[in-house]
Amino acid sequence: MSNEIRYLSLDWINALTAEVAASEHMRDVAEHHSIGVTQIVSDGPEGDVTYHLVVGDGEAAFGAGPADPEHVKMEQSWKTAVDVATGELNAQEAFINGHIRLFGDQQKLLDSQPVFGALDAVFASVRDRTVYE
Question: A Pfam family this protein belongs to (predicted)?
């Protein structure tokens, strides 16, 4: 039985949910940062997908649906999401070129870069099982 999971599927979101919940590093950055981010990815194999990351007060949560509270919302297509996730497209370039649309508190997003560094390490734990189709 394969343990591969499709990118942005509910299984993928659940795997990330478990990894974020188990990450001591995520809890550490959540002691010093607070942000809620909603990601909306359109036109994927399973339709549109909405998921969130919420950190603050020493807790970090990842899951399906919008963030509560939501400080920042990002919208992108399936192709952009896959290209960024696989390294085919630089995330900053995607923002600059309008492939990722950003709404909300951009300064809070910039101030929360350590959160996304910690999240990248968590993503790496699932990346080798992820298929992008």
Answer: SCP2
Per-residue three-class SS string for 48-115: EEEEEEEEECCEEEEEECCCCCCCEEEEEEHHHHHHHHCCCCCHHHHHHCCCEEEEECHHHHHHCHHH
Q: Token digits for 50?
A: 């909405």
Q: Which of 126, 15, 6 is nearest to 62 (CA)?
A: 15
Q: What is the pTM of this model?
A: 0.92
Domain range enclosing 94: 5-122
Alpha-carbon distance of 38 to 3, in angstroms, equals 27
**Nearest of 133, 110, 125 to residue 62 by alpha carbon:** 125
Q: Is 126 helix (H, G, I), strand (E, B) or coil?
A: helix
Mean pLDDT of successive 10-residue stretches along the chain, which has 133 residues: 86 95 95 97 95 96 97 97 94 93 95 93 90 92
CATH number, position 16: 3.30.1050.10
Q: Angle at the Cα of 50 (from 131 to 123), degrees rounded to 5?
A: 45
Domain count, the chain: 1
Q: Is residue 132 part of a domain?
A: no
